[in-house]
Structures are given as C-alpha cells and as structure tokens.
Amino acid sequence: MEKQPSCCVLCQDVLKDPVSTSCGHWFCRQCITSDWVQSASPGDFSCPQCGKRSRTTAGLKWNPPQQDLH
Known about the structure:
GO terms for molecular function: zinc ion binding. Pfam families: zf-C3HC4_4. It comes from Sparus aurata (Gilthead sea bream). InterPro entries: E3_ubiq-ligase_TRIM/RNF, Znf_RING, Znf_RING/FYVE/PHD, Znf_RING_CS. Keywords: Metal-binding, Zinc, Zinc-finger. It is a single chain. By secondary structure, the protein is of the alpha+beta class. The chain has one domain: Herpes Virus-1 (2-Layer Sandwich). The strands form two sheets. A three-stranded antiparallel sheet has the order 2-1-5. The longest helix is centred in the middle third of the chain and has 9 residues.
C-alpha cells in the first residue's frame, strides 16, 4: 500500500479532505468529484492519474489527516 502523498495531482496543492481511488491514487475530495462531474462520459469514474475505471464513486476511501499526538 502506497503512503499518502502531501499534495493533490489535480490542483497541485496540499490535500484537503483527502480520498484515494481503488487504484491507490490520492486527491482532494472536491477535486476528484469535480473532475468526475465534468467528465465527458457521465457515470465514467476514471482515475485522472492512471485511467483505471470504476462504475461508482463508492471506491473512494477517506483518510483523515495525520496528526501528531503528544
């Protein structure tokens, strides 16, 4: 399993509300959902990074930000 990156491939900014696709790529929740809404093919939930397709958004996995607990 890949380590969660610190920035989103789509917006090139720090991950906000990070989610990963079933193929393991990380995006901001808003970025990936916006990308899918603007997709040329409604219902085509492809990973913008590798192109792996999913028939549903249920493949997204949410991970809370890592926090230092002292």
